[in-house]
Design a protein that fits this description.
With about 70 residues, this protein is an alpha+beta fold. It has one domain. It is about 20% helix and about 35% strand. The chain is built from one helix and five strands; from the N terminus they run E-E-E-H-E-E. A five-stranded mixed sheet has the order 3-2-1-4-5, with helices on one face. A hairpin with a 5-residue loop joins strand 4 and strand 5. The two termini are about 15 Å apart. Pfam families: DUF2188.
Amino acid sequence: MSGKNQYVVRNGNGWGVRGEGNSRLTGSFDTQAQAIERGREIAQNQGAELRIQGANGQFREAWSFGNDPYPPKG
């Protein structure tokens, strides 16, 4: 994968999108669905992975938009 992985995370009473290694949010949203939509756009543009955090703080889902060869090398 070439881009920076994106994370949908809880942000106070709302949700945010944060790039891997960033301390600041890329965007803040009222709903998780809005954050997922924006995170997906960013991850697709960067050929990266989107990881989604549930309300309980556990990561529940991940989508890969990079060039993942099948079968994997190695």
